[in-house]
């Protein structure tokens, strides 16, 4: 067993984990956070996507011990997040989910897209969603929801590039 | 699909990591991003006693531009390259290659060093680094050595790495003038492993080089093709003949479809370059 | 038939889904999310050989009570699966292997530990002595004399062979045009994103076995589970939590389900098994795997006359309870005429056992294969005759005036306008514009093609149809129990199972329509045999027809009583009262449902003399025409194909479809788009190939290609609404339709791209290799090597 400290959804969590335990299993089985779903356990479906130190991360491809000292956010921890709230509304209004199993990973990924791109168009969103499997919707309404949510975010004109360091 | 048990160590230095990886009588593995290793552990096709976490070794994170080259530490992630967080000496080629590796969440953690160390025949970085004539710097029990990436990878999933070796990073020579390049890939779907990777580059003196990946155990320069393309006024028939000659020389196992497919992909990369 | 009026707008309203909130907050409760104190996990040791004698199982020492063989979990009863036909051979499928394994992935030993990882550790230590036997992996080869036998006591490898003989197929020999073609739709998995899973324990308080199961129909499972375990059904409770997709793959009793339940009865704590993706691809139900060898006969003017030939279904190593895969062959042959006036049929079908994973149902069941075969044939005939495929299709299709129409294979096509559907789809993709574009050629050297495919989707088929199919259970009705609680809110328990279709919303809309209240006051419940009346679950595009009808029936029983009580409270005649907005209105005033419901439940003294208390009604429903109602549609697709790599890109996808009255058009569109995505998977990406010794070659998503957002276009849709006459509101089921036509439409489009050189694409998925090789063969045959030149 290895001792780890993770800032999980804003709260420091100390635990002893088996080195072999994936971050996904740690979240689900040790912490009871079951929004993070496992659809393939080999990084191909995206259902287990969480945020680690600000980066969209496959929690099935990360060990819990490797998250030691990191900040981890799951869908549960983003309940009040303004961007996630916006995305939830558009997913609902666009009928962007059916069985709901892929939805947590889709939402985390959608949030990541909107954090990196201003007003992404459908083609960009599709490319960015590659690796997120939804078996029910055929993706069209997920793409629509993310594009629409992006349109709802007011954006300042981009700040001028900082001058290169001397 | 859960890993078998193993011990875990997170060394503080490269030397410490090298010692740990060289532990006698133990199956050890280094983990950086883990994006390829984790599925192999879960499927229990990789069975190890000790996992050495090198993901926090600052010495492997250095990214710097020298007078005539770019240094990329082994832990540089695909996403960092995709996002333009490393100097662009290659007219956008590295960003292009990085941006279509697997999926964004994988690119956030997957590293260039891990990709080259694994030497998956269908991986992008080996092909790209060979095309750019990069060298790899390796720290091991015998000290530090530098090899051309083209020599470092000698077969499918097989490199010169031995017990205790760690890739420190890559030195990629800068082109003398803005690089002209073409990059083309055939895959069953977005983010899937490539069935063909072709990179064509043209240096300042007009000499063209072409590297083909995912066509055999390791990427190979297509020298006859490159020579033919460099020659003035080559016809498409002549280029196709040269490609066939390269297949015979380097990728003798290709069947008719694969030859057709790789040829089309090489020509696409060449067209993009021009 | 109740006709929706404009004042009752819940029918036809795109109400946003009640299901969404919990999933959007991560509060869905799927089987692996259930937290049960003391639960232990099971990992299975599975066969790594396609066909073998099991000589010995050697568990590591000291693991008694943790390692289970068939002998350890028994005695169990073997369920007889397949149709109730003497000619259908029995393939006993034990929960854990006896002395024989018949496919790679068959469970042999169950290992139980506190965690799944530990269970896998234990499974790694179990030693097996297997002796390889000859395996058979191809259905056609399996029917040749001298083929290895999957079951020693069978005379050959056919579960059943059958024939369809209609009209006068002998006359076809003299037809002026006869084309013989072979079509293969390869094997694939169903790939619900949530894999299967089961969690079982003995509930001592209720003295019953509780089985949480990711299933499409718990009541039917209970029948089989009780039989297998030798328990009375009142000692077995099946609970389906949130189910993360099913698509047919969760509609059979699987060996793991029985094994886990049996272990739970031996040990004193909950036991669970959560299927992982490798197990899913290896040993969950497989689908498709059809081979057609057909000859079509045609008159000079293009009239399709008849079909002859053989259909092989590779059904794998065992029949799955209840119905096996017999329906694949019967539905393939019965749907083979499609919507065309084909008069003569001479078909033989073979449902064949092989050393591959057992076949189960998957969205579209058999019809994707049948549609692929007939719609490809139409295009092949058009090419032979030098006709525009669209025109030949239109010439032969049944017109609106001919409906209802009985096809040669005995299907009664009910309502609609098939010609309009074709024309609308043609106009959506602008066929003349594509022909003009093809004439110009593409600057990038790719070839452009357009393809059409028409499908019909039988739904709502009831007793007569299922009895004809010799089904072991006859899902000819559905049930609903509607209760109005004392405050006027409503809970409706249904026997169907929601796994993404939106029943909580659409059924609430139906109930709201019947009860004249808001859907917000109505809760739809399902998935627990302890609470809902018997029902058959959700499959075969049946839920809106049967489940929706049962909801309507039960609500009408409630509202009738509500009105009587209301009239009594208003001291009026029922005839002089009306119902609107959750109240009964009479000449002297109004009384709200809450007051009525409170009286009915809690203040019986206010009820009319002699009236029984409670507002609690159970209704069942079967449509008046039990041969089914037919949704239908035309898929039109435009592709660009790179001949040398064989890569296909979909440029445009349009659908004109008719599923009758739409309860919730938003959900209809979602079902169509989602079905098409799966159909595109079948057409271009998904396949589980086996090598010659029966090793499956796609057991992870690295090898099994599930299309993602970049691969799936946004489908443009047109809806034609011809209400069914035999169902409530005129609905027709539509869940499967989207998945039926894409392989045919896409293969027709790719063939169209290369029609000048006569290339045909008759095997799915159309992988880059298959496409490029077909082009290459055609180029060689035509000996005019102009790569990919469009006609």
Molecular structure report:
The complex is a heterotrimer of chains A (166), B (274) and C (791). With 166 residues, chain A is an alpha+beta fold. Chain A has 5 helices and 5 strands; from the N terminus they run ββαβββαααα. Chain A has helices spanning 23-30, 82-93, 103-116, 122-129, 140-151; strands at residues 2-8, 11-17, 49-52, 55-58, 71-73. In chain A, helix 2 (82-93) packs across helix 5 (140-151), helix 3 runs parallel beside helix 5 and helix 4 (122-129) packs across helix 5. In chain A, 63% of the residues are buried. Chain B has 3 domains: 7-48, no CATH class; 59-173, Uridine Diphospho-n-acetylenolpyruvylglucosamine Reductase, domain 3 (2-Layer Sandwich), CATH 3.30.465.10; 180-271, 2-Layer Sandwich (Enolase-like, domain 1), CATH 3.30.390.50. The mean pLDDT of chain B is 96. Chain B has helices at residues 14-21, 37-42, 78-82, 93-99, 104-107, 112-118, 124-131, 149-152, 223-230, 236-250, 256-273; strands at 7-9, 28-31, 50-53, 63-65, 69-73, 135-140, 143-148, 153-155, 158-159, 166-173, 180-187, 194-202, 208-213, 220-221. In chain B, the strands form 4 sheets. In chain B, strands 4-5-10-6-7 form a 5-stranded antiparallel β-sheet, sandwiched between helices. A 4-stranded antiparallel β-sheet of chain B has the order 11-12-13-14, with helices on both faces. In chain B, strands 1-3-2 form a 3-stranded parallel β-sheet, covered by helices on one side. The radius of gyration of chain B is 19 Å and the shape is globular. Chain C is of the alpha+beta class and 791 residues long. Mean pLDDT of chain C is 96; it is low at 1-7 and 787-791. Classes of the chains: A alpha+beta (166), B alpha+beta (274), C alpha+beta (791).
């Amino acid at each position: 067993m290895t001792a780890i400290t993770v800032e999980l959804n804003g709260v420091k969590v100390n635990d002893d984990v088996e080195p072999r335990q994936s971050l996904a299993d740690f979240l689900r089985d040790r912490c009871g956070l079951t929004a993070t779903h496992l659809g393939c356990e080999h990084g191909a479906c995206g259902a287990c996507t969480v945020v680690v130190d600000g980066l969209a991360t496959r929690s099935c491809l990360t060990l819990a011990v490797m998250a030691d000292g990191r900040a981890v956010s799951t869908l549960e921890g983003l309940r009040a997040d303004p961007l996630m709230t916006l995305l939830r509304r558009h997913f609902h209004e666009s009928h962007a989910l059916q069985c709901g199993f892929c939805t947590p990973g889709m939402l985390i990924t959608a949030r990541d897209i909107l954090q990196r791109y201003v007003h992404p168009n459908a083609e960009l969103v599709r490319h960015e969603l590659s690796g997120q499997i939804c078996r029910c919707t055929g993706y069209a309404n997920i793409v629509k929801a993310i594009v629409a949510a992006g349109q709802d975010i007011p954006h300042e004109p981009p700040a001028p590039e900082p001058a290169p360091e001397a | 699909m859960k890993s078998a048990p193993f011990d875990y160590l997170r060394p503080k230095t490269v030397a410490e990591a090298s010692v740990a990886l060289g532990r006698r009588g133990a199956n050890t593995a280094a983990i950086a991003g883990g994006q390829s290793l984790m599925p192999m552990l879960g499927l229990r096709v990789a069975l190890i006693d000790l996992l050495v976490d090198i993901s926090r070794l600052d010495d492997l994170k250095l990214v710097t531009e020298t007078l005539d080259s770019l240094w990329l530490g082994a832990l540089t992630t695909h996403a960092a390259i995709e996002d333009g967080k490393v100097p662009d000496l290659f007219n956008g080629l590295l960003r292009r290659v990085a941006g279509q590796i697997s999926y964004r969440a994988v690119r956030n953690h997957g590293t260039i060093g891990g990709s080259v160390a694994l030497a998956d025949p269908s991986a992008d970085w080996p092909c790209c680094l060979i095309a750019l004539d990069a060298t790899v710097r390796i720290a091991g029990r015998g000290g530090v050595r530098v090899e051309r990436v083209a020599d470092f990878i000698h077969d499918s999933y097989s490199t010169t790495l031995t017990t205790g070796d760690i890739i420190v990073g890559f030195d990629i020579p800068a082109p003398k003038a803005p690089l002209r390049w073409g990059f083309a890939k055939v895959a069953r779907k977005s983010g899937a492993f490539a069935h063909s990777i072709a990179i064509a580059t043209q240096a300042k003196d007009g000499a063209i080089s072409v590297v083909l990946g995912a066509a055999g155990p390791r990427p190979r320069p297509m020298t006859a093709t490159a020579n033919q393309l460099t020659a003035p006024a080559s016809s498409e028939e002549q280029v196709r003949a040269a490609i066939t000659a390269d297949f015979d020389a380097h990728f003798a196992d290709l069947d008719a479809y694969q030859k057709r497919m790789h040829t089309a992909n090489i020509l696409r990369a060449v067209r993009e370059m021009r | 038939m109740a006709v929706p009026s404009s004042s009752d707008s819940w029918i036809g309203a795109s109400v946003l889904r009640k299901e969404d909130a919990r999933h959007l907050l991560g509060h869905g409760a799927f089987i692996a999310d259930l937290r049960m104190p003391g639960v232990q996990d099971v990992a299975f040791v599975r066969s790594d050989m396609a066909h073998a004698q099991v000589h010995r199982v050697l568990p590591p020492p000291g693991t008694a009570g943790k390692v289970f063989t068939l002998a350890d979990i028994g005695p169990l009863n073997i369920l007889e699966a397949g149709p109730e036909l003497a000619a259908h051979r029995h393939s006993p499928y034990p929960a854990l292997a006896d002395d024989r394994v018949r496919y790679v992935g068959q469970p042999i030993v169950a290992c139980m530990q506190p965690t799944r990882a530990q269970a896998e550790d234990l499974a790694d230590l179990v030693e097996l002595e297997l002796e390889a036997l000859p395996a058979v992996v191809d259905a056609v080869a399996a029917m040749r004399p001298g083929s290895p036998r999957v079951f020693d006591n069978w005379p050959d490898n056919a579960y059943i062979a059958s024939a369809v003989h209609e009209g006068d197929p002998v006359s076809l020999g003299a037809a002026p045009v006869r084309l013989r073609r072979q079509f293969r739709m390869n094997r694939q998995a169903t790939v619900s994103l949530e894999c299967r899973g089961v969690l079982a324990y003995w509930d001592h308080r209720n003295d019953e076995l509780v089985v949480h199961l990711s299933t499409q129909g718990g009541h039917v499972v209970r029948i089989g589970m009780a039989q297998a375990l030798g328990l009375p059904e009142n000692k077995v409770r099946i609970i389906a939590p949130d189910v993360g997709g099913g698509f047919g793959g969760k509609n059979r009793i699987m060996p793991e389900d029985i094994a886990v339940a049996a272990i739970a009865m031996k040990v004193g704590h909950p036991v669970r098994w959560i299927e992982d993706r490798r197990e899913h691809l290896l040993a969950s139900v497989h689908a498709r795997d059809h081979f057609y060898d057909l000859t079509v006969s045609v008159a000079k003017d293009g009239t399709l006359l008849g079909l002859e030939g053989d259909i092989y279904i590779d059904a794998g190593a065992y029949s799955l309870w209840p119905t096996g895969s017999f329906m694949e062959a019967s539905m393939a042959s019965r749907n083979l005429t499609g919507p065309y006036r084909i008069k003569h049929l001479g078909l033989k079908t073979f449902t064949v056992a092989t050393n591959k994973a057992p076949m189960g149902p998957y969205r579209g069941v058999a019809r994707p294969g049948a549609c692929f075969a007939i719609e490809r044939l139409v295009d092949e005939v058009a090419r032979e005759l030098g006709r525009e495929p669209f025109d030949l299709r239109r010439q032969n299709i049944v017109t609106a005036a001919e409906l209802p129409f009985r096809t040669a294979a005995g299907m009664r096509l009910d309502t609609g306008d098939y010609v309009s559907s074709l024309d609308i789809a043609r106009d959506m993709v602008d066929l003349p514009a594509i022909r003009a574009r093809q004439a110009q050629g593409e600057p990038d050297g790719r070839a452009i093609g357009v393809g059409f495919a028409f499908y019909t989707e039988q739904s709502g088929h009831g007793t007569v149809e299922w009895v004809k199919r010799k089904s072991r259970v006859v899902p000819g009705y559905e049930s609903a129990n509607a209760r109005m609680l004392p405050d006027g809110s409503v809970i409706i328990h249904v026997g169907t199972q929601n796994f993404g279709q939106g029943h909580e919303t659409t059924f609430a809309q139906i109930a709201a329509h019947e009860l004249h209240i808001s859907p917000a006051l109505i809760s739809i419940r399902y998935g627990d045999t302890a609470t809902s009346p018997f029902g058959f679950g959700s499959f075969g595009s049946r839920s809106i027809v049967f489940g929706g009808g049962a909801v309507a029936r039960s609500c009408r029983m409630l509202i009738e009583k509500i009105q009587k009580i209301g009239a009594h409270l208003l001291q009026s005649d029922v005839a002089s009262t009306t119902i609107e907005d959750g109240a009964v209105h009479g000449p002297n005033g109004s009384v709200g449902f809450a007051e009525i419901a409170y009286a009915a439940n809690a203040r019986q003294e206010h009820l009319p003399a002699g009236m029984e208390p409670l507002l609690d009604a159970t209704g069942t429903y079967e449509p008046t025409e039990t041969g089914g109602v037919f949704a239908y549609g035309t898929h039109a697709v435009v592709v660009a194909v790179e001949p040398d790599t064989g890569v296909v890109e979909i440029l445009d996808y349009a659908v004109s479809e008719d599923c009758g009255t739409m309860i919730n058009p938003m959900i209809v569109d979602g079902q169509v788009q989602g079905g098409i995505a799966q159909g595109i998977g079948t057409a271009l990406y998904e396949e589980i190939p086996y090598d010659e010794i029966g090793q499956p070659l796609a057991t992870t998503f690295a090898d099994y290609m599930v299309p993602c957002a970049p691969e799936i276009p946004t489908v443009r849709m047109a809806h034609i609404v011809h209400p069914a006459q035999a169902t409530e509101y005129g609905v027709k089921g539509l869940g499967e339709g989207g998945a039926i036509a894409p392989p045919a439409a896409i293969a027709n489009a790719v063939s169209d791209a290369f029609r000048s050189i006569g290339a045909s694409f008759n095997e799915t998925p159309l992988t880059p290799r298959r496409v490029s090789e077909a082009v290459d063969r055609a180029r060689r045959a035509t000996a005019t090597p102009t790569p990919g030149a469009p006609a």
